[in-house]
Amino acid sequence: MAQQVNNETTPSTPGKLKPDKPHHRFRIHPPHSRYTFICILLSAFLVFLLFSTFNPPPPSTTAPRRVLGDSWGGSHWERLVSKSTRRNSASNKIVLVTGSAGFVGSHVALALKRRGDGVLGIDNFNRYYDVNLKHARQKLLERAGIFVVEGDINDGTLLKKLFDVVPFTHVMHLAAQAGVRYAMQNPNSYVHSNLAGFTVLLEACKSANPQPAIVWASSSSVYGLNSKVPFSEKDRTDQPASLYAATKKAGEGIAHTYNHIYGLSITALRFFTVYGPWGRPDMAYFFFTKDILKGKQITVFESPDGGSVARDFTYIDDVVKGCLGALDTAKKSTGSGGKKKGSAQFRVFNLGNTSPVPVSKLVAILEKLLKVNAKKRVLPMPRNGDVKFTHANISLAQREFGYKPTIDLETGLRKFVKWYLEFYSSGSIKKGSSSW
Ligand SMILES: O=C(O)[C@H]1O[C@H](OP(=O)(O)OP(=O)(O)OC[C@H]2O[C@@H](n3ccc(=O)[nH]c3=O)[C@H](O)[C@@H]2O)[C@H](O)[C@@H](O)[C@@H]1O
């Protein structure tokens, strides 16, 4: 029940102010009271300074907006775009890869280019993790002949321009705000990239002529609190445990709408904890490696009942094969110029490894490969969006495009550790420059 409040005598923060005599409360009496007033102002200013020093805002993950003609546009820029999207005579695909300076994006873009498809990348180079790693991936892509446009998928004008210049047959949409636990620190970045950005991209695709077919990254996290294992595409996905998962689930709904109204061919891929060389420094296997080598303590989560927390860790090369399989079996969109002409393909696939491994085992493998004992602290999994267990049923992807993961966790981590040691000792990136 609402309490009756006497505004004359009750302070807004109960207990902080005495209900003083009203007529004395705001009067300043010189000279002593003026001196007190200045002291209060100065103290408030100092408290404000202290607060802003010890509570810096989370790093901005939103890239600055650019204007046409500033970082993109112009005849030179268009030549770079056209050159990058040239395909060889055997290929019938021109693919726009969003998030191409990211982990999965860079691997997929390279694989497409290697087999002769026309490929253009786009990435906003946000500062969620070390941007130097993203630029190093960009260099790899450039060496392979892939141009990466620096821009945000929220920039509808840029996307329209790209579709005006290039008749993309496919969009491989891998740009996203990733990470399960970071969603509690910076929820808006998930809304910005995974909802708003995705919608702007779909708007551009639906208006394009021809409309491209879209393959995009959803996430195993959509299964949330689902306890039926292994997770199959038909299982419940209405109990997300994190905002990240909720935005990916909402993305699947948004995708369905564009498929239904505009005839866009859309395929969602639910990735299961993808790892490997050129990976993401915010992921556990990556920062465990870094911290173990530095002799820093790592925190290993166990489930609240003392059981182990496990993931269906999936090696990057297996996921890349799955992405290409999904792209190659995607049917054409049926609409054009914003008008639907018939029903279009709508698919959802799990891309996992079908073999969950406890996080404690992941740590043991890393200790063996790095030849260093980890300083471990075992803690119950905090309520931060994590789920206890993931396990993919992959029979649908197997049936549709022969998806068959072949790399077990130890083999994959060996490849990752080799890359990590070479990369960070070669001076490509200064050690410790990462914010993770
Ligand atoms: O499958 C997915 O869709 C998701 O996979 C990962 O999310 P997650 O599985 O949580 O991967 P990590 O953050 O690398 O965590 C792996 C495991 O290590 C555990 N962990 C994490 C951090 C830590 O300090 N200690 C620890 O034990 C987590 O509980 C989890 O079980 C990615 O980060 C997400 O972007 C992706 O969408």
The radius of gyration over CA amounts to: 26 Å
> Residue share in helices?
25-40%
Task: List the strand order in the largest sheet.
Answer: 3-2-1-4-5-6-11
Taken in chain order, the helices and strands follow as HHEHEHEHEHEHEEHEEEHEEHEHH
Shape: globular
What is the mean predicted local confidence, pLDDT? 87
Looking at this structure, what is the CATH superfamily of the domain at 75-272 and 314-353 and 390-406? NAD(P)-binding Rossmann-like Domain
CATH topology-level name of the domain at 75-272 and 314-353 and 390-406? Rossmann fold
How many E-type strands? 13
Unreliable stretches: 1-31, 46-59, 64-69, 430-436
How much beta, percentage-wise?
A: 5-15%
Q: Structural class of the secondary elements?
A: alpha/beta
> Main beta sheet, described?
7 strands, parallel
Q: Tell me the number of helical segments per DSSP (H or I, 4 or more residues long).
A: 12
N- to C-terminal separation? 47 Å
CATH C-level of the domain at 75-272 and 314-353 and 390-406: Alpha Beta
Question: Which CATH-level-2 architecture of the domain at 75-272 and 314-353 and 390-406?
Answer: 3-Layer(aba) Sandwich
Distinct ligand kinds: uridine-5'-diphosphate-glucuronic acid
